[in-house]
Amino acid sequence: MKQEILIVGGGFAGVWSALSAMRLLDLHGRTDIAVTLLAPKPELHIRPRFYEPNVHTMSAPLRDLFGAVGINFVQGVAERIDSHGQQVTYRDNSGEEASLVYDRLVLATGSQLFRPPLAGVVEHAFDVDGIEEATRLERHIEGLAQQPESAARNTVVVAGGGFTGIETATEMPARLRAVLGDDAPIRVIVVDRAERIGAALGDGIRPAIVEASRELGIEWRLGTSVASVNAGGVELADGERIEANTVIWTVGFRASGLTEQIAAPRDGQGRLQVDPYLKVSGQPDIFAAGDTARAATDDRGNFTVMSCQHAIALGRYAGNNAAADLIGVAPTVYSQPKYVTCLDLGSWGAVFTEGWDRQVKLIGAEAKELKRQINTQWIYPPVADREVALAAADPANPVA
């Protein structure tokens, strides 16, 4: 019977883990080990793009790719991990319970938006966390034209002024005008606890956010937060009421709840602590990648963040090392010292930075073109060609 490397999760980290594991097995001529990926659908959702319109186009099919390289795909939702019995229980499309055994497991089930227990958030706020949720928001925006003219109809409130909140907010003016017309008196308002615009992104990037906000007409409510949401708007913690038929929640992400089923240290976001080979602390058969892993990116005290930039690389290393562990070859130390950000600022442009101190390198139209390449080319999976796909999964490759 073949040994099994099981990858749980079909996001960036999961897909690249599976490809990388298969690459190392192929290099060593090992056909006695199977690589299986368990995920709800045989497609990669391009999550970093969900703030854009046409969300239904933002997925990449995986069946042909997996078929080309020999990865087994199992469709289902993982529910329980038995680390002692080396088994994952899942629910298939028909709702039936089934299980998969493993010799090495890579947990790559990502993260989810955390909605706090505030009145009305679950019932009335939209988000761009998953493709279904982003599609629901898009349908809502498209339907605004059928609503009676009002200030609330023309207003969008974005809760959170971090990366996702800023990209969502700066895209909104164009999306609203496409539906309501160029003359519509639209308002986009970002509510953020911080005292300064873009505080979480640093001083270097702030001037671009400020300028883009001014040009696009985006308002900021700083030093406060959303206290409650209803069908007609939001109440802020400072007492202000904003009438808005569209409220988008972008605050707070947590690692997949499956991390809680593994006996290992976790950080405040629920991410599993991993060693330099991405093996979960205290778990000899389990690796973690993507948003489920807290990994040191270098020897200067920097750690991974929840982003596809890190998820792709983590996947390449985790899959490689899971296979290496089984076949008895040396694993590869995860290292990703280069850190960049490319923040989309809607029709104004974008801003591209390098380093953990976010030194601005490109701005405006030039950065926007780079962002377009990242979003439409670089983060997509490789073509369904065995040689090309396996070569792309080498941990030594840069992410871009």
UniProtKB/TrEMBL annotation:
Q: Which UniProt keywords apply?
A: FAD, Flavoprotein, NAD, Oxidoreductase
Q: Which Pfam families match?
A: Pyr_redox_2
Q: Which organism is it from?
A: Pseudomonas schmalbachii
Q: Which InterPro entries match?
A: FAD/NAD-bd_sf, FAD/NAD-binding_dom, NDH-2
Report what the protein is called.
NAD(P)/FAD-dependent oxidoreductase
- Name the source's superkingdom: Bacteria
**Has keyword Flavoprotein?**
yes
Record-stated family: Belongs to the NADH dehydrogenase family.
